[in-house]
């Protein structure tokens, strides 16, 4: 059932879930100024950052074949609009990453989300 949900809907959900993880992480780092929190969050939640993290996960063979399929489906979704601050390829990779997180949430694979987030943050821990 979840695989039939529009990829952009999965990305919409995944975006908020991922950002929640990142916000909690940076607050736990001890940052208390809202402007500083926002500046730090951008290092993780921007399309450019998400693309970098996703490509590393792919190159490290960290993702399953099923997860790669979800990412590709979202990345290949017909949508030619994108934010002004990034190119369409970067935006599509970021959309694929967010769709994966949304998919895992709807499949109740919370432990897998935790593993992915931990892998992303391990360089910064």
Provide the succession of SSEs. HHHHHH
- What do we call the CATH topology? Ribonuclease iii, N-terminal Endonuclease Domain, Chain A
Text of the CATH class:
Mainly Alpha
* Binned strand content: under 5%
CATH superfamily: Ribonuclease III domain
Count of alpha and pi helical runs: 6
The CATH level-2 architecture is identified as Orthogonal Bundle
The main pleated sheet reads as: none
Mean pLDDT: 91
Low-confidence stretches: none
Q: How many beta-strand segments?
A: 0
**Overall body shape:** globular
**Mind telling me the C-alpha Rg?**
14 Å
Structural class: mainly alpha
Word description of this protein:
This protein is mainly alpha-helical. It has a single domain (2-121), classed as Ribonuclease III domain (Ribonuclease iii, N-terminal Endonuclease Domain, Chain A). Helix content is 71%, strand content 0%. It has 6 helices and no strands. It has helices spanning 7-28, 34-45, 47-59, 65-75, 88-106, 110-121. It is globular, with a radius of gyration of 14 Å.
Itemize the secondary structure elements and their pairings.
Blueprint lengths: L6 H22 L5 H12 L1 H13 L5 H11 L12 H19 L3 H12 L4
Helix pairs in contact: 1-2, 1-4, 1-5, 2-3, 3-5, 4-5
Label this structure with key terms.
mainly alpha, Ribonuclease iii, N-terminal Endonuclease Domain, Chain A, 6 helices, 71% helix, globular
Summary?
This protein is mainly alpha-helical and 125 residues long.
